[in-house]
Amino acid sequence: MRLRPSMWVRRSSLQHLDSILTGYHVALEIHGVEEESDFVHTGPFAQWLWKRLGMTYPSALGWAVEIERAAQATNVPAMDLFFDLLDEFQAVHHGAQPSAEQAHQASPEAE
Q1: How is 81-95 classified by DSSP, letter by letter?
Q2: 46 vs 94, which has greater pLDDT?
Q3: pLDDT recorded at residue 93
Q4: What angle do CA 45, 67, 49 make, to 5 degrees?
Q5: Percent of the chain having pLDDT more than 70?
Q6: How far is CA 2 from CA 18, 49, 50, in A?
């Protein structure tokens, strides 16, 4: 999805992505599948994001709206900011390593 977000998410809207993830989570619950999700409204990603964005209290609007607001304020595409924040969150909470594409972009030879 990172390479072609508009192929998966209408207008590359994070609010549409949030709707997709919510629908997926609801479908899992309906079918009795237990799976942890970082993206539920008050889940780990949202809790981390509020602190990361310097918010003093959780947003009732959700993580997607707040990232879109931050992106607009910094003139960065919202989907790009989302993936940057997601990588940071995963590194902190899941010990994830950067993707091959990110590692290539960060290396001096990539320039």
Answers
A1: HHHHHHHHHHHHHT-
A2: 46
A3: 87
A4: 30
A5: 86
A6: 15, 19, 23
